[in-house]
Amino acid sequence: MTPREASQASLEFGGPLGVTAILVLLPATMFHLLLVARSGPARLLGPPTYLPGLEELWSPQALLLLFIWLGLQVALYLLPARKVAEGLELKDKSRLRYPINGFQALVLTALLVGLGVSAGLPLGALPEMLLPLAFATTLTSFIFSLLLYVKALAAPVSALAPGGNSGNPIYDFFLGRELNPRLGSFDFKYFCELRPGLIGWVFINLALLIQEAELRGSPSLAMWLVNGFQLLYVGDALWYEESVLTTMDIIHDGFGFMLVFGDLAWVPFIYSLQAQFLLYHPQPLGLPMALLICFIKAIGYYIFRGANSQKNTFRKNPSDPSVAGLQTIPTATGRQLLVSGWWGMVRHPNYLGDLIMALAWSLPCGLSYLLPYFYLLYFTALLVHREARDEQQCLRKYGRAWQEYCKRVPYRIIPYVY
Ligand SMILES: NC(=O)C1=CN([C@@H]2O[C@H](COP(=O)(O)OP(=O)(O)OC[C@H]3O[C@@H](n4cnc5c(N)ncnc54)[C@H](OP(=O)(O)O)[C@@H]3O)[C@@H](O)[C@H]2O)C=CC1
Ligand SMILES: CC(C)=CCC[C@@H](C)[C@H]1CC=C2C3=C(CC[C@@]21C)[C@@]1(C)CC[C@H](O)C(C)(C)[C@@H]1CC3
């Protein structure tokens, strides 16, 4: 089977029709949520109380701010790294090299923004710019994905992603034709996955906290919790940056509109929805409830980090003392599957931890509105779909050994439930 035939045989997301609908629905959902979060009733499913005109969406200043931000993150990515990591082996047996300096980029950005604020940079004004910024980011994502699609037309077959090479232009534009598009040693997918959007999310949250303090004298406890929890999540992702090299996005998915828009627009503007909601709808939160929520977050993080680190350590060095005692199933590829420890509890313990953390991010917003729970609902759907995709890939990779694993570990994400 040629790569194109293989790609056509396993079209995902409902094929060309499905991805055309998603292409329109994703940005529409994002703008709907941004508008609803600042409206009085904050109804997740109702219409927004007003529709902005093009003059409210389009702003050259927002576009300039976006390019300054992207330029800063590119510059920080290019700084000398504490380590250069190798990715997994590619089809042509080569391995790409990636700088590990994401945490350094977060700290340096914080220092620069801190300096800027003390010199009078009005960070608290950022929430007012979210709509035009989201519009500029959406336009940029469309144009950037188009450029990536055109660039991939000249890429060799060995550089194409397994999924985004169907021959249908809309489908391939959405999924991404090339697996690891690069300009010299600059890797676009790796850069976008962990830098501008993820770090941008933290600073949007901070701006919302500052504006709340300006409006109400001090930030609320709920706003502190949401900021703290999400900063921990982003800090963790950058501290363990190397582990992103074994995620499905890096090793399997092409770099097309889905990931470009997801990384650059969806993450910063949608993942900050709880903090946006709290700025416009302050919620009382007592200390006992806050402590209970911190406990839930701690359990989620313990499972998430434990599971991800156990798998990464095992994949890097199966005889590492922390994983050497675990039970395994051998596979025909020479790799083994963990069948005890976190990976013996359910087949995706890291998703379980991530979902528990998502719940802890929404709870500070109280139980009267559905809107702050959008992330939890969307994330559940994303992970259930992702789990099914991963299952198919593992079955293809490991055959019988995977079936044996599924027999020994029957639950996918939640023990005894799913
Ligand atoms: N916040 C967000 O928006 C999102 C967060 N995430 C998070 O990203 C993280 C990474 O997720 P993702 O890339 O989907 O997948 P995983 O990190 O779960 O990786 C799946 C891979 O792990 C390996 N694997 C599966 N079972 C075993 C086993 N028993 N023993 C050893 N290896 C095994 C297989 O690859 P192989 O055998 O080839 O190593 C499989 O393909 C998760 O924590 C997830 O929650 C993901 C999506 C969105
Ligand atoms: C609906 C839509 C726009 C889909 C695109 C999905 C993307 C938003 C997500 C796909 C996988 C992601 C990961 C993270 C962020 C969200 C996206 C890009 C991640 C960087 C978050 C931090 C984690 O610690 C992580 C590094 C494990 C994670 C990797 C996957």
UniProtKB/TrEMBL annotation:
<dbReference type="Pfam" id="PF01222">
    <property type="entry name" value="ERG4_ERG24"/>
</dbReference>
<comment type="similarity">
    <text>Belongs to the ERG4/ERG24 family.</text>
</comment>
<keyword id="KW-0443">Lipid metabolism</keyword>
<feature type="transmembrane region" description="Helical">
    <location>
        <begin position="129"/>
        <end position="150"/>
    </location>
</feature>
<keyword id="KW-0752">Steroid biosynthesis</keyword>
<dbReference type="GO" id="GO:0005637">
    <property type="term" value="C:nuclear inner membrane"/>
</dbReference>
<protein>
    <recommendedName>
        <fullName>Delta(14)-sterol reductase TM7SF2</fullName>
        <ecNumber>1.3.1.70</ecNumber>
    </recommendedName>
</protein>
<keyword id="KW-0256">Endoplasmic reticulum</keyword>
<feature type="transmembrane region" description="Helical">
    <location>
        <begin position="355"/>
        <end position="379"/>
    </location>
</feature>
<keyword id="KW-0444">Lipid biosynthesis</keyword>
<feature type="transmembrane region" description="Helical">
    <location>
        <begin position="12"/>
        <end position="37"/>
    </location>
</feature>
<dbReference type="GO" id="GO:0005789">
    <property type="term" value="C:endoplasmic reticulum membrane"/>
</dbReference>
<comment type="function">
    <text>Catalyzes the reduction of the C14-unsaturated bond of lanosterol, as part of the metabolic pathway leading to cholesterol biosynthesis.</text>
</comment>
<keyword id="KW-1207">Sterol metabolism</keyword>
<keyword id="KW-0812">Transmembrane</keyword>
<feature type="transmembrane region" description="Helical">
    <location>
        <begin position="255"/>
        <end position="273"/>
    </location>
</feature>
<keyword id="KW-1133">Transmembrane helix</keyword>
<keyword id="KW-0560">Oxidoreductase</keyword>
<dbReference type="InterPro" id="IPR018083">
    <property type="entry name" value="Sterol_reductase_CS"/>
</dbReference>
<dbReference type="GO" id="GO:0006695">
    <property type="term" value="P:cholesterol biosynthetic process"/>
</dbReference>
<feature type="transmembrane region" description="Helical">
    <location>
        <begin position="285"/>
        <end position="304"/>
    </location>
</feature>
<keyword id="KW-0472">Membrane</keyword>
<comment type="pathway">
    <text>Steroid biosynthesis; cholesterol biosynthesis.</text>
</comment>
<dbReference type="InterPro" id="IPR001171">
    <property type="entry name" value="ERG24_DHCR-like"/>
</dbReference>
<keyword id="KW-0153">Cholesterol metabolism</keyword>
<keyword id="KW-0152">Cholesterol biosynthesis</keyword>
<feature type="transmembrane region" description="Helical">
    <location>
        <begin position="57"/>
        <end position="79"/>
    </location>
</feature>
<feature type="transmembrane region" description="Helical">
    <location>
        <begin position="100"/>
        <end position="123"/>
    </location>
</feature>
<keyword id="KW-0756">Sterol biosynthesis</keyword>
<dbReference type="GO" id="GO:0050613">
    <property type="term" value="F:Delta14-sterol reductase activity"/>
</dbReference>
<keyword id="KW-0753">Steroid metabolism</keyword>
